[in-house]
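Materials and Methods. Structural model of Delta-aminolevulinic acid dehydratase. The 243-residue sequence of Delta-aminolevulinic acid dehydratase from Paraburkholderia hospita was retrieved and submitted for structure prediction as follows.
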Amino acid sequence: MSSQFPAVRPRRLRKSSTLRTIFQEVEFDLRDLVVPIFVEEGVSDFGAIASMPGVLRIPESKLAVEIERCARVGIHAVMTFGISHHKDQVGSDTWNEDGLVARIARICKDTAPDMVVMSDTCFCEYTSHGHCGVLHEHTVDNDATLVNIGRQAVIAARAGADIIAPSAAMDGQVQAIRRALDDAKLADTSIMAYSTKFASALYGPFREAGGSTLEGDRKTYQMNLAGRRSANLCSTRKKGQIA
Ligand SMILES: [Zn+2]
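The predicted structure was written out as tokens:
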């Protein structure tokens, strides 16, 4: 065998730690992290989340301390979730300007103005039935929910949220939110949907963290987990480009 074999030796670029550093493609630091924060109203103690050891629900009264702590260690962004004690059929606390969604955004921004605040935008933590929108019989009414999601987005943005983060799986939600924000002269508020997801048991721990009281399942609005390719169409629909 010739000494020229093999002609390509990628291992040359891996022979020392400094060499590997030069050629590495991915950089990762604190700026890449978004800390999810679960904020509970009406309580004074931190709450354990059995399915996520080490993650705690934070009492609203201690949120400022938590945001300060994140800022101090160099975290640039938080994603906020409310654990409501004011649930109703439609989640109307989310579009109350003194409701939990608004108060959380306000506390975050007042405490650390430079912190990027992403406000989870959905209804399942605020509805008595635990579904992500307006429930008619056993089905979530997509278009009625779009009206409410626009209201919630405006309230969160006015309170200081930099990014509206819809997690409801409603078709056309991004377009509905964009219109509502623009109509409210909030054109600089961004939208980051993270709602193209499967109706899967993997969200169980998250539902527990959010204090969801879900009755039934989300199979009529989240994706069938046996249909991977529908994710492309689904993410396009969520953007509102397909009505
Ligand atoms: Zn939801």
